[in-house]
Amino acid sequence: MNDSLVIGGTSLESRLVLGTGKFPDRHLIPRVIAESKAQVVTVALRRVNLANPEDNVLSYIPEGVVVMPNTSGARCAEEAVRIARLARAAGCGNWVKIEIVPDQVYLMPDNQETLRATEILVKEGFVVLPYVLPDLVIGRKLQDAGAAAVMPLGAPIGSNRGLKTAELIRMLVEELEVPIIVDAGIGRPSEAAAAMEMGCAAVLVNTAVATAGDPVGMARAFALAVEAGRRAFLAGLGPVREYAEASSPLTGFLAELEQGT
Ligand SMILES: CC(=O)[C@@H](O)[C@H](O)COP(=O)(O)O
């Protein structure tokens, strides 16, 4: 079965996107990527150090994996655009995850500034994946602006709190045509599976893997969960009912017994 996810003209078999921050040891990164089978990883441009390969996160990303620089640290559209241009000039390709976060307590994204940055960067030929607070109105505008996907948060970045925004994400999945990738807050493989069962195209996970007791083992667990959730979505989940419904209806012998004949 061909069930590839196509983003920016690139065909992906894996629907798990990984973040590369917070790992206790950078040497874990290539092992985690291999075990998760992720084909796209996001890196913060501020962690790209071209002058020192040992300190450069890009040195730990296996060949063939799509690098999606993110604009973390940006507080407005102009800063995000500048980071994206720098990343492309540094050889990081033309994918970019727009992350514009003026709030330092909950790390909530600024949806309006994100839309502005998307409009600018799409025109400059970037494959733009904006990270947003789930909102159908802004989702439609991002899609119209040419975003390659929309990435709503499930819960605050790094919180591991799960799909707190599930009902809002569901609206995006139902109404938008671009892929919906849940980004941030997913703390457990079961939550990744739930997002996929809902019809999300992929999930982006960082903290839950990087801070696990065994990050490599957790990467594998997420890969399996994402695949299970996707298969469940494609198979079509059965209806949810208010009341019980017997699995085996009364027929023949049992029906006669019931009537006392
Ligand atoms: C690396 C990255 O982009 C994260 O900021 C992303 O939003 C993932 O969030 P979690 O760390 O909560 O998985």
TrEMBL record:
Organism expressing this protein natively: Winmispira thermophila (strain ATCC 700085 / DSM 6578 / Z-1203) (Spirochaeta thermophila)
Residues given in the record as 1-deoxy-D-xylulose 5-phosphate binding sites: 158, 184-185, 206-207
Location of the active site: 97
Protein name, UniProt field: Thiazole synthase
Family label: Belongs to the ThiG family.
Keywords: Cytoplasm, Schiff base, Thiamine biosynthesis, Transferase
Species classification: Bacteria, Pseudomonadati, Spirochaetota, Spirochaetia, Winmispirales
Chemical reaction(s) catalysed: [ThiS sulfur-carrier protein]-C-terminal-Gly-aminoethanethioate + 2-iminoacetate + 1-deoxy-D-xylulose 5-phosphate = [ThiS sulfur-carrier protein]-C-terminal Gly-Gly + 2-[(2R,5Z)-2-carboxy-4-methylthiazol-5(2H)-ylidene]ethyl phosphate + 2 H2O + H(+)
UniProt EC number: 2.8.1.10
Pathway listed: Cofactor biosynthesis; thiamine diphosphate biosynthesis
Domain Thiazole synthase ThiG: 7-249
CDD domains documented for this protein: ThiG
Subunit organization: Homotetramer. Forms heterodimers with either ThiH or ThiS.
Primary residence: cytoplasm
Role description: Catalyzes the rearrangement of 1-deoxy-D-xylulose 5-phosphate (DXP) to produce the thiazole phosphate moiety of thiamine. Sulfur is provided by the thiocarboxylate moiety of the carrier protein ThiS. In vitro, sulfur can be provided by H(2)S.
GO biological process: thiamine diphosphate biosynthetic process
UniProt-listed SUPFAM superfamilies: ThiG-like
EC category name: transferase
